[in-house]
Amino acid sequence: MSTAHSRTVNLGSHQMHCMEAGQGPLVLMCHGFPESWYSWRHQLAPLAEAGYHAVAMDMRGYGGSYKPNEIDAYNQVDIAADIAGVIEATGHEQAVIVGHDWGAPAVWNTALLHPSKVTAVAGLSVPYTGRAETSPLLTLKTLFKDRFFYILYFQTPGTAEAELESDVRDFITRFYVMASKQGDGSFMLTKAADEPLLQGFEPAGNLPDWFSEQDLDYYTAEFEQNGFRGPLSWYRNLDRSWERTKQLSGKKITQPALFIAGEQDGVIADRTSLDRMKDNFEDLRGIELIDQCGHWTQQEQPEKVNALLLNFLNSLSQK
Questions:
Q1: pTM of the predicted structure, to 2 decimals
Q2: What are 65-82's pLDDT values in tens digits?
Q3: Which residues are part of the catalytic machinery?
Q4: CATH number for the domain including 21?
Q5: Which of 8, 98, 58, 153 is nearest to 298 (CA)?
């Protein structure tokens, strides 16, 4: 078995923490909210044993990585630069990059902004449908009006932090269960805009089989130590990221690409987003939906995700 070890890389102005295993072509994994490198714990050893240098990074604002206090530092242009920097700092000229949840937009944007660094790209949960024609926040405010939507709730600095940090373990438990295959987040569609995030959440009860007390302990400790300001600031940069990527309007991702999601992931409840993906790639090699899987794709169904990723990697003939 390949054993993962911790590594901190220097990007010049700041440092990023990673866990890595194996040697060979680089496969760099990027997590989402509210996660850490730990969300890729089931992928590191299988990728390493298949002959890859498997690296899972703590993204900006998380874990042992750079945590700027300035909200505007969490825009997608700077985050893509982090990913490109980690590729170089780990001794590689290029990588296959894989991202889940917020990590998916991060890798889609890195493929567009730093094409020479990216040989192929895979996104989990969040499709790439091209740069929006209008302001993302304006679109959300128009769509939801007086109804609750978590991204809009996250916009006011300090509000969500106070709620989530008041009992980190309870938040992580409820949020993970709600977005898993056995969860039900439909109640959020009927909440008023001024309600707190956790109002209406049912007590989590027993943890899912794929999410152990040890896993819960790890995430709880991470966010009790580091807080949520950085992670929530990703959401507060929707418009700033959009404004800074005007050059990407109409651009297609040219690298070989793969999309994976759980059949029961609320992010793709509107399946038309999957159809819209096809017009934004030159080499989209698959849209794979996994049965009995919710939002936490690579944690809920690691064996299926690993098989899909390895098939994709093998198709690249890069080794």
A1: 0.96
A2: 999 999 999 999 999 999
A3: 101, 295
A4: 3.40.50.1820
A5: 98
